[in-house]
Design brief:
Layout: H1 11-19, H2 24-37, H3 43-56, H4 65-75, H5 80-86, H6 95-110, H7 122-134, H8 141-218
Helix pairs in contact: 3-4, 3-5, 3-8, 4-5, 6-8, 7-8
Length: 219
């Protein structure tokens, strides 16, 4: 936003807008899509940025998605703004599915596919995370991290590295194609508008010449 609100939103309003934007998810998605397609970077840079943002959404490091996406986008020569917009793929609607997929995939790869093998159910894992965060007092960060790293964060990281490309790769090609088509359409519109301007100018010049010839003949 270019200008901030005079009165900051309350916590309840912030949570409501996070779960359901004022423009609705459909209109917000359309807005993000237009912002992405109107970026001045190359189609590869735009597509790589969006794909990286979508991939980063599969990482369990909430609050660091923008930073992680920016670093990976820089490595793959992607657009940084596109990478930030690409993280929109991770939202309150998609996160439950993303977390379930990455959590189960990570534990399957690590060989702990049941509670007996050390893999708690996803709901219990989320409760464990919230409990650890709630009890965190700022002085035992390593202990709090250790409580959730092995059973939750590490499996979801492994699952994110495996599930993320399944979404990021198709998004790259779709975004690159959409960017190319959007620019071709915009270029054709500009050429058509320039042609119309030339035709009007030519017609005006012909009418002026005709009026001049007519007035000259009358004199």
């Amino acid at each position: 936003m270019l200008m901030k609100r005079r009165t900051p939103p309350t916590w309840l309003e912030f949570i409501r807008v996070s779960l359901w934007p004022r423009r609705s998810w459909l209109r917000s998605g359309q807005y993000v899509t237009k912002r992405v397609l109107r970026l001045t970077a190359s189609p590869h840079a735009v597509a790589a940025g969006v794909a990286v943002g979508a991939f980063t959404s599969f990482m369990p490091y909430m609050g660091f998605h923008f930073l992680i996406a920016a670093v990976i986008a820089w490595v793959f020569r992607g657009n940084l703004i596109a990478s930030a917009l690409g993280t929109f793929f991770g939202n309150p609607i998609s996160f439950p599915f993303i977390w379930a997929a990455t959590y189960q995939t990570g534990h399957f790869v690590l060989g702990s596919t049941s509670m007996a093998d050390g893999a708690p159910a996803l709901g219990e894992a989320m409760k464990h995370v919230l409990s650890a965060l709630w009890s965190f007092d700022g002085g035992d960060a390593l202990i709090a991290l250790e409580q959730i790293w092995t059973p939750i964060v590490w499996p979801m990281t492994i699952g994110g590295f495996l599930c993320g490309p399944l979404v990021a790769i198709p998004i790259y090609f779709l975004t690159r194609r959409a960017a190319i088509l959007f620019r071709e359409s915009r270029r054709n519109k500009l050429l058509k508008r320039a042609s119309e301007i030339r035709d009007r100018a030519k017609k005006a010049a012909q009418e002026a010449a005709l009026r001049n010839s007519t007035s000259g003949a009358e004199t």
